[in-house]
Design a protein that fits this description.
transmembrane, nucleotide-binding, 4-stranded antiparallel beta sheet, 19 strands, about 750 residues
Length: about 750
């Protein structure tokens, strides 16, 4: 049984949940429910323990308690954009919870955990999943980061192994030089100072030699220490830069499914702050650790060479310090991973709120967002307080043990001097070495903290690097050129998690044919477009373009033939020209202008203060929805794609602007395959065939007039939109249009 897992850190019922747990009862999984029994938004909570299923209902503000017993079953389903979790016994349904599909991944984990608990209680073999998700939002990972994960950084350090070897040699020399000074105190005490107190004259030559040795050792130590620190700092920064670049490049290569389960703020935190933490560790703390180890080893050799008995007395605190380090290491390791998680929550709030500040202000929700940030910040404070409680006790305890060890050495040394076993100079040198020995020992104990921080950060970085894309490139890719745009889908099935989206879909689209795709929201239109773009791979069946299975072609080679215009046009911060040329950075100004003319964007661009060199704000702020959409259309046109995909490209514009865009599209569909999900059904009239989808299946197929005559699914959609009776039908209708070969087509001004 795993350790007790906390409920969602920012959920207001966290404390109440823990207060309801019995002695020895552990939380196994939790699920945030964002709707109440009436379908209104509210913060509910379902928690599975090893003994009960606990649920908080936001509408009534009360808790329900269902003891685990044979015959209980949880069923997860979804319909109409909502998910439902139902609890049954052998006779009836006991409870039903509803929530948005954002909670579906956590609900799947909850159901799996429930089934495992029931198997465990029934004495059956428990099914163990081969791979858990790396981010379990509602509980702590059962496998805290191991310090050994830092060894995986050698992959990034290998290119700099020559500099690292030189840095190690400098470190060895600097450490050796620092050990010269205590050794020279013995002749200074025994041959200069003590004889002088006894009436002997001071030998100037000897004093000059000894002081010169001290000065030389100090200069050598300084020079080598400076060179070592500078060199290794440069190397560590380059390792961290390579780590950031590699992680970001790997992240870009992952499929959309990976990003669907991640928060933007969390990924930003990993690539930014975690790599910075690793850089600091490599440039400062790892260097200090190696120096400390060298110092301890060389000091120990010198101490035993001076007096073995006194050296053994020096080692008295070591077993106790080692035991303390072992005791707090796991607590620190787990604590720092908790800190990483709660800090990710803070970053997520910022990443949600700042880009959406217009919506926040429009709905006057500033206080709500401030409260979210405050809750996440307070949770971060509490986690840090718990960790600091452990660390604040550990550090002074190590200092106390080293002071006690120093007292032991003083006592043994005085006893040895009294029995004339050693000289005062020997004891003085010994104490000087011991000061450095215990100082390095204390420093090493402090490095435990930063090492665990770096290990936690490295684990989160390697969680990204270890993730394999669900849309991989083939080992031996097939060339893909001279695309005509013929698309064939045979037995296509697609599941997203536990949901079946596309079911047994068969469709052949001939070059030159216009095909419209129609269906309510959730019928699978956008998913089918995503499969054609190969943002996802089909679960079963296959999609072929020009007779070539998409899985046999490199993803980048295939997507070079696709132009995509999204329902929500996304523009990058930069100039108008840079945004249009995003898919073809080496495009000439004439080509950019030609694409803008074809998208009916040239006129409004010229009215901007700096024309094509006008800056647009982040995500295109400062331009209207129609203007952003026409720039995104020009961006897709510039690469002259074989397949043009318009995902409801006219839904964000007014009727007059749509007419302008539609006039441009009438010219653009000639000579290329165009796939469009349109907002208004009136755009379907020019399609050769219409494919009507419902719940991922084709239910009707034929031209517009024939489908109207059938008075089936398509007719009902058409009538609802024409009469403005069914507003939902008006919002969610769609079109996919397909037309012929692009190879003869070029964009002209």
């Amino acid at each position: 049984m795993p350790d007790q897992l906390p409920a969602p850190s920012t959920h207001p019922q966290t404390a109440a949940l823990h207060g309801r747990l019995l002695a020895g009862e552990n939380v196994v999984a939790t699920l945030e429910v964002d709707l109440d029994a009436h379908g209104h938004f509210g913060q509910g909570l379902i928690a599975l323990t090893n003994a009960h299923l606990l649920a908080f209902e936001p509408a009534s503000g009360s808790w329900s308690d269902f003891p685990l017993a044979p015959g209980l079953a949880l069923k997860l389903s979804d319909h109409g954009g909502l998910a439902f979790l139902e609890l049954f016994d052998t006779e009836k349904r006991l409870a039903r919870w509803r929530f948005t599909l954002a909670g579906n991944p956590a609900a799947v984990k909850l159901v799996d955990a429930f089934e495992r608990e029931q198997q465990r209680r029934a004495g059956e073999p428990v099914r163990v999943d081969e791979e858990e998700g790396e981010d379990f939002d509602f509980g702590e990972s059962s496998k805290p980061p191991s310090t050994w994960v830092l060894l995986r950084l050698w992959r990034f350090a290998r290119p700099y192994q020559g500099q690292l070897l030189l840095g190690f040699a400098l470190m060895l020399g600097a450490t050796g030089a620092t050990l010269v000074s205590p050794y020279l105190t013995m002749p200074l005490m025994d041959r200069v100072l003590i004889p002088f107190q006894n009436g002997q004259a001071i030998d100037p030559g000897l004093v000059t030699l000894l002081l010169g040795g001290l000065l030389g050792a100090a200069l050598v130590s300084w020079a080598m220490g400076w060179a070592k620190t500078y060199l290794l700092s440069l190397v560590s920064e380059r390792i961290a830069a390579d780590l950031r670049t590699t992680t970001f490049e790997h992240l870009l290569g992952l499929s959309l499914e990976y990003f669907g389960n991640k928060r933007t703020g969390d990924l930003m935190s990993r690539i930014g702050s975690e790599t910075d933490r690793i850089s600091v560790f490599l440039s400062l703390h790892a260097l200090d650790f190696i120096t400390d180890v060298l110092m301890l080893a060389m000091t120990s050799i010198i101490l035993f060479s001076i007096h073995p008995g006194l050296a053994l007395a020096t080692l008295v605190p070591l077993p106790f310090i080692a035991w303390l380090i072992h005791l707090v290491r796991d607590r620190l390791r787990t604590g720092f991973e908790k800190i990483d998680r709660v800090w990710g929550e803070i970053t997520n709030v910022l990443a949600d709120t700042i880009p959406g500040i217009r919506v926040v202000k429009a709905f006057a929700q500033e206080s709500r967002e401030a409260r979210r940030f405050k809750e996440a910040n307070i949770n971060n404070l509490h986690v840090n307080d718990r960790l600091n409680k452990t660390w604040s006790l550990f550090t002074p305890t190590v200092a106390l043990l080293t002071e006690m060890g120093l007292l032991v050495v003083w006592g043994v040394g005085i006893w040895l001097i009294a029995h004339q076993s050693i000289t005062v100079g020997t004891l003085t040198a010994f104490l000087a070495y011991i000061g450095r020995f215990y100082g390095r020992l204390d420093s090493m104990s402090r490095i435990v903290s930063v090492t665990q921080k770096a290990a936690a950060g490295a684990k989160r970085i390697f969680d990204i690097l270890d993730h394999v894309s669900n849309v991989p490139d083939p080992v031996n890719p097939q060339p893909f050129e001279n695309v005509t745009g013929a698309i064939s889908m045979q037995g296509v099935n697609f599941r997203y998690g536990s949901r079946s989206i596309i079911r047994s879909l068969n469709l052949d689209i001939r070059p030159g044919e216009m095909v419209g795709l129609v269906g309510h929201s959730g019928s699978g239109k956008s998913t089918l477009v995503n499969l054609i773009c190969r943002f996802y791979d089909v679960t079963e069946g296959g999609i072929k373009v020009d007779g070539v299975d998409l899985r046999r072609v490199k993803v980048a080679d295939y997507r070079r033939h696709i132009g995509l215009v999204l329902q929500e046009p996304f523009l990058f911060f930069g100039t108008i020209a840079e945004n249009i040329a995003y898919g073809k950075p080496d495009a000439t100004r004439d080509e950019i202008v030609a694409a803008a003319r074809a998208a009916h964007a040239h006129e409004f661009i010229l009215r901007l203060p700096h024309g094509y060199d006008s800056l647009v704000g982040e995500r295109g702020q400062g331009l209207s929805g129609g203007e952003r959409q026409r720039i995104s259309i020009a961006r897709a046109l510039l690469i002259d794609p074989a397949i043009l995909i318009l995902d409801e490209a006219t839904s964000a514009v007014d009727t007059e602007t749509e007419k302008e865009i539609q006039r441009a599209l009438d010219n653009l569909v000639k000579g290329r395959t165009t796939i469009a999900i349109a907002h208004r059904l009136s755009t379907l009239r020019k399609a050769d065939r219409l494919v009507v989808m419902d719940r991922g299946e084709i239910v009707e197929l034929g031209p517009h007039d024939e489908l109207i005559a059938l008075q089936g699914h398509y007719w009902r959609l058409w009538e609802a939109q024409a009469r403005r009776v069914d507003a939902e039908g008006d919002e969610d209708s769609g079109l996919m249009v397909v037309a012929p070969n692009p190879n003869a087509h070029t964009v002209n001004a």
